[in-house]
Known about the structure:
Helix content is about 35%, strand content about 25%. By secondary structure, it is of the alpha/beta class. It folds into four domains: about 1-80 and about 270-300, 3-Layer(aba) Sandwich (Rossmann fold); about 85-265, 3-Layer(aba) Sandwich (Rossmann fold); about 305-440, CATH 3.30.1330.90; about 440-514, Alpha-Beta Plaits (2-Layer Sandwich).
Amino acid sequence: MEELARDGALEVLVQIGLPETDLIKLVPDFSALVVRSETKVTKAVLDAAVKLRVVGRAGVGVDNVDVETATRRGVIVMNAPGGNTVSTAEHAFSLLLCAARKLPQADAMIRSGKWARKEFQGVELYNKSLGIIGMGRIGSELSRRAIAFGMRVLAFDPYLAATRARTMQIELLDDLGDLLKEADFITLHTPLTPETHHLLNATRLAQTRRGVRIINCARGGLIDEAALADALRSGQVAAAALDVFESEPLPLDSPLRDLPTLVLTPHLGASTAEAQESVGIEIAQSIRAALLDGTIRNAVNMPNLDAKTLAVIGPHLRFGEKLGRFLSQLAPNRVDHLNINYSGKVNEVDTTAITRSVLKGFLQKAGGIEVNEVNAPAYAESLGLKITETRLSAVGDYTDLLELSVSAEGNSVSVAGAFFGVTPRIVSVNSRPVEARPQGVVLVLENTDRPGIVGRIGTLLGDHGVNIATMSLSRNEAGGTALTVLNLDTVPGDKLLTTIRASEDIHAAQVIEL
């Protein structure tokens, strides 16, 4: 509050615990709204906020803010992404110690009037292997603390560069199964996405070293809670500690409550005085900058742009994000270098915002929806991903051309797009000329160039009820390897893809969802 009201430039009103109906009555007169996690900034609230310019969430997650409605109404949504990193890392390490030494259980035993030391023999952290799944800000902080305790740190992060891992003195593993087999302790620090939902399920828990101890301070849903309960009962998992759950508050009938080898805390990762103050000051400074200086930072739905520039490059922002998302699904997970090449008239404007939109689209596969135009460069740096921009002033075949390419282990993957008038089109994939719409479902095939292939693919798709909207073919030479790009009406199923990939004439088949 002091930071917001400093120098009297802003009039600040504090109202805590307002129900939605009261907030709707109050909000029309205000330019900014600052909330923590309890207050829900719903569509109804935003529709009533006729003067609102900024919503500030004093914390990382913005799940209590209707970002889509805010964006549509031109309201900037800001968060404080860095304020709770240390607190969450420390809480995860505290739970690591609790799982190793049974500290909460021992405390409860003494308070009940008992004294049974033999029941609480623990294990040391020293010389043990800690497997960290996800090496973002919090995972990196935790690794430093584990190394200080003499632990061997193993890491699985498909998007972390090997050079970054060496700098952090950790062992980067390419396969999650290798980490599960080697680690004495496992801790999760990855966003919750469709790919990471139930990342530790019954199958993967069975692959772990018997007697492993598991920590989760990241997101509920990363672990299959029923499978974890079974593994704890069988002894496959010796102990676990959870700060987050699939359903919060944890239901009274949850089987997790009855497991003596499980430590439970009520989502306390960011619950320190320092973290709460840090995120509060961080969001207050961002709000002041937006209202008083027009500077936008830590925004989840808006790049750092003024209205005039946005009107000029707006189409490039949306197209760049889609090309980035396309490339992220076409390329290998772990890449070292991303180059963005601008050709033609687009060079006449500042392309910083376009680059950030490209990064947002490219990195959301790794970082989830928390990656935005503002934090994308820092997130790329944390992964060890090198970003470069190149420019060609010559117009060439297109008035504007945006070409993205990534390199990994000596191989290069690329996609390029251009505007046909006001209509965006993908015009090149891996340096092969194509024409495809950057929307919906795209199937990219590499196949042997021989008669009948296109017909066979079309028949296969038709037999499985998948309709082709458009098709583009490209080849280097007759009888060589051809590239086929199809816009589909629906996502092809796993069985269909398996059938397509089983053909000796199909070298690669990738489904891309835009």
